[in-house]
Design brief:
- The chain is of the alpha/beta class.
- It contains nine helices and 14 strands.
- Helix 5 crosses helix 6 (269-279).
- Residues 140-291 form the SGNH hydrolase-type esterase domain.
Amino acid sequence: MRRFNIAVLAALTLTVGLTAVPAAQAHGGRASLGIDNCTATACHFDVPPGTYDVEVVLGGDVASSTGISGETRRALLPETAAPAGERVVRSFTVDVRTPEGEPTGAAGTAGLDLAVGGSAPALADIRVTRARHARQVFLVGDSTVCDQPGDPYAGWGQQLPQYLRKGVSVANYADSGESTVTYLGNPLLWATVQPLIRPGDLVLVQLAHNDKTTDEATYRANLETLVAGVRERGGRPVLVTPIVRRWFNADGTLNNGTALLVNGLGVDHPAVIRSVAATQEVPLIDLTAKTKALVESLGVEGSKALYLYNEKRDNTHTSVHGATVYAGLVRDELVARHLVPRGTVRVG
């Protein structure tokens, strides 16, 4: 367990002027789940896998600005300002599991780990409790969606949690390099995810980037299998067309197969996804159309910041900035299509 030393804890008490929230007790008699599990920049809670509500109190004697991330670099709370002498309370719900990031990746650290960041961080208090009646948003996808383990990479699913309030958590089971074929075939992926789906849970599916040799009939059938599998569990499937590749034509448009995910067999992945969504009566988030419009509006130079062009000459994978922007597009579609209650979403 990581704890403040006596001097730091005393200074915090004097500065904040708060009495610590009564400590909740973890299941099985484990240690309290409050501020005594934190240093100035990180918190560790010895909890078993599950879904947890986290309430934080932010602020101090001087103006502050604090953001919270956790587990495998997930953005859980956007940077939040607190005026000098004031306290701001925020809550979010987090999924704790093993492996904590990509399903085929490293196990990570047991329990819940949070990082306290921002331009002027000030964590005054924190409380972690087992979530009751939380709704899950499962993500099934590839490297453009997953919880990327290291900088400079980031998936939009990794940034989505910061847009959701307490009561809705993101369970990101996207995995690098996966196609519809491999996602269905690997027992660590779909066979693991499907039993976890509960009635009413959303399951967002974005698989296309790695279906480079998948024929149209197989691709369509795989999407239909995923939809049927979600419905079998009482979940609500949502099909998501893939983010575009940053691959410009001379005229400044992205109207080409590379950018718009048409594979070597001529399979137009976004078109097939739209068709399956229509025939299966599944909600559609047309992220291809949304990201195409945005990238074209920013142009050749402006759009570089969304991807890893400057760092890796990579026009497929997104930077933290790009993943955050694209997660915002998904957030907007979830609200517009009434897929999550408006009150559970952070706007702006």
